[in-house]
Amino acid sequence: MKVWTMAGVLIVLGFALACSPGERTELKAAQLRCEYLKNPLGIDVTRPRLSWVLESTVRGQKQTAHRIIVASDEENLNKNKGDLWDTGKVKSDRSNQIAYEGKTLHSRQRCYWKVCVWDKDGVKSDFSAPSCWTMGLLEDDDWKASWIAMDRKPISGKPKDLAPGPPPPWFRKTFALDKPVKRATVYITARGIYRLHINGKPKGEDVFAPEWTDYNKRIQYRTYDVTSALTHGNNAVGAIVGDGWYSGYLGWRKQRGNYGLQNSLLLQLEVDYEDGTSQTIVTDDSWRCSEGPIVSSDLLMGEYYDARKEMQGWDTAKYDDKAWAPVILVEKPQAILVAQTSEPVRLTEYITPVNITEPKKGVYVFDLGQNIAGWAKLKAQGKAGTKITLRFAERLDSTGNIYTANLRQAKATDTCMLKGQGIEIFEPHFTFHGFQYVEVEGFPGIPTKDAITGCVVHSASPPAGNFKCSNPMVNKLFENTTWGQRGNYISIPTDCPQRDERLGWMGDAQIFIRTATFNMDVAAFFTKWMVDVEDAQSEEGAFPDFAPRLKDKALMRFEGAPAWGDAGIIVPWTIYRVYGDTHIIEKHWGAMTKWMDFILEANPDLIRRKKVGNNYGDWLSIRANTLKTLIGTAYWAYDAKLMSLMAGVIGREKEANQYDKIFQNIRVAFQKAFVRAEGQIRGATQTGYLLSLAMDLVPEELRSKSAEHLVENIKKRGWHLSTGFVGAGYLNPVLTQMGYADVAYRLLLNDTFPSWGYSIKQGATTIWERWDGWTEEKGFQNPGMNSFNHYAFGSIGEWLYRFVAGIDLDPEIPGYKHFRIKPFPGRGLEFAEAEYNSIHGKIISGWKLGGGKITMNVTIPPNTTAIVFVPTSDASKITESGNSAADSEGVKFFRVENGAAVFKVSSGTYTFTSAFNNRERP
Ligand code: BGC
Question: What angle do CA 499, 484, 480 make, to 5 degrees?
Answer without folding.
Answer: 130
